[in-house]
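Support request, priority: normal
Reporter: lab tech (M.K.)
Component: structure prediction queue

Hi team, I submitted a job for Necrosis inducing protein NPP1 from Phytophthora boehmeriae yesterday, and the status page still shows it as pending. I've pasted the exact input below so you can check whether something in the sequence is tripping the parser. The sequence length should be 247 residues. Please let me know if I need to resubmit or if it's stuck on your end.
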Amino acid sequence: MGIQIFILLTIGLLASAQASELDFDLVVPFPETEPTTKEDKVALKFKPSLYIRQGCYPYPAVDEDGNTNAGLAPKLLYGAGKCDAVYGASQGSQVYGRVKEYADSWAIMYAWYFPKDTARIPYYWGRRHGWENVIVWLNELSENATIDAVTASGPGDDYSVSAPPAASMVNGTNVKIQYQNTIGTMHYVKVATSPGRFQDLVMWDDLTDAARSSLNDHKFNKAEVPINDANFPTNLKSAYDAWKNES
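Reply from support: The job had stalled in the queue. We restarted it manually and it finished. Here are the results:
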């Protein structure tokens, strides 16, 4: 047993050492998760759409070998440039999902990666890499569940709350999410009324070990991976508290 553990650890370390950063449009996404488990079926059923009001389109953050997205350096002119929706993600886009029962609800986090993030005029600043997420809160783990609330990562570390979202903000079981920024803020997501696009959903447990390791360990500059092992529990607590404090 000791030798087996040593071999597995060695393989993991070698895979991590061999992983590298790839150009923002060369990271190959994972195929969409197959609906093989109850968690997968529910996560696919409630997958939100994403409307890009301005800024980058979402791109894959990591590939099956653990290679990560190198992102894009912000330019001195406001705008998305090569990563906007006109160009799109040449390899295909991705949204990452993770499910957990939390307190009296079921939480499904959906997280998107963006190659860069910028703030709006009259002030300009930007950075390489961006992550945003929403959490859909269900009354039960079922395809017939009711959406009790949606929490979305807003400017800073705060979650905005829609509890429950208005009918105009949901298409069937799919919440409409908008990616935007306002004067003086970096990009963030919120529940909105504009229809958007869907990205292939890959669940955390369907990622390869190398991909999970990279999302757990790789530093995307100041953009923290919301769905990894370190941040997922913290984000669930912050979002749940924001929801309940608003009730």
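Helices lie at 2-18, 38-45, 209-217, 232-246. Residues 2-246 form one domain. Let us know if anything else looks off. Ticket resolved.
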